[in-house]
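FAQ: What does a multi-protein file look like?

Like this. Sequence, then tokens, then the next protein.
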Amino acid sequence: MTRFEALLKRSYTLFFVALISLTSVGCSSVPDKTAQPPAEISDPLESINRPLWVFTWEYADKYVTRPVTDAYVAIMPMFLREGLLNMAENLNEPSSMINNLLQGKFKHAGSDAGRFVLNSTIGLLGFYDPASDFDLEQNQEEFGEVLGTYGVSDGPYLMIPFLGPSSVREEVGDFIDHSYFPIGALAFWPGIFRRAIIGLETRADFGEREQVIDNSVDSYQFVKTSYYQNMLYRVYDGNPPVVVNDEEEEELDDYLDMLDEIDEGGE
């Protein structure tokens, strides 16, 4: 068996393992978008996460990530930056297709497949994006989002040195995503180069949010809350449910009762 066949077999195996794991939790073939996410963020490792956040933001980003990103943006021509990022993201299309299929998003899955074929051929391995000219929109979905859609909780919050906020669910999802072909077929250094390109462009796009973090009362708490809000936004396709705890719900009920009394008094 060749290395390509072994990787392809591994991808098929991972796909069916993922499918079985989703159906084994008692979910239907289409995920329940009405399920309520937890109101509280699980952070049992805060005593470890906080120092890691300080290291990541105050030292790693300040003295490594930000200077390298600034140099990359200053040196690299824009067309080359866009082309390299397109190539890196094009490799995500097959895993995104599977993740959309697992959520019953067949139209998005078809778009992912079309994008990968067109951009990998006419687009010169993804350097160009002719698929967009055919109205094939990018709908990248991660396996962590699939798990969240099917009701799997985030698990403990994690702060990864140099990389930033994450969760147990997202780390499991990333492992699955990176195991599918063609990303799983990349050798070590090409894989590192691809992640570096995505990381540099993500940091370059960070922009004015740096000042927001620096001006926040508790930057650790701010980043954690923002991360989970973003995860909810992605899992619920831009329409997350409003989550309130019991105390907030009681205050809301009292407020509505007061409005009713005011309306009755005015009649």
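And here is the next protein:
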Amino acid sequence: MSTDEWLHALAAELRRRGVEAGAVVAEAASHLRESGEPPLTVFGAPAAYADALVDSLRTPRPRSHGPVRLDVRGVTKSYGRRRVLTGVDLTVRAGEVAAIVGANGCGKSTLLRICAGLEAPDAGTVHRSGALGWCPQAGGTAEFLTPDEHFTLVGAGRGLARPAARDAGRRAAAGVDWDPAGAPQGRHLSGGTRQKLNLVLAGLGEPDLMLLDEPYQGFDHGSYLDFWAQVWDWRDAGRAVVVVTHLLAAADRVDTVLDLGGRA
């Protein structure tokens, strides 16, 4: 089965189950381009993948009303003459998940970088409360450090002793179906494995606010579902999570959706 045939079959299976197919199929196509693997290897049969996806979207978790961890007001940003963000507002409380969605180039990653303090807005304010965990869409890892060395380095900055940081990193890695013990330096890791490393580093030390920029790029089907299961666990633990994503089908499993599609 070719990639196009698999994507067409997936769209049909999702429509049969009452799921909006466009965003999900686009997300799957992006994963396949990134991995370069056949769709049956990455995701399995279209019907089985559709069933797993629908099952992952059932039973929404109850909403929480904890303290505000992120408050964005009137954020505006331009690059030269190109306006990327205009008057964006977003509030996320402890125990909530917010999804930032929209077409490529609409400013999703820019907004998240502003929220993380890595870029300054032209106008508007960003207030954060508590410790911050950050997972970039790309980069973020050191070329000449092993995963265990990443864990101990980042863990030290979050008050974790070396053995505790290593053990915490390995436990978190197991949650996305990855065993980092004995893994090579960052420069030798695949793109998907680097993203798993970034995701684990973002969660070390149990930060109060987590900003995740399409952190599942290059993940296979199982790891992708594991990622969302981890997000729900973080929410249940009282963390505030902001995820840049194209997967609109997950909208009923998040507390806030900020659509930047019309802002580019």
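Q: Is there any per-entry metadata?
A: Some entries carry free-text notes. For the entry above: The longest strand covers residues 68-79.
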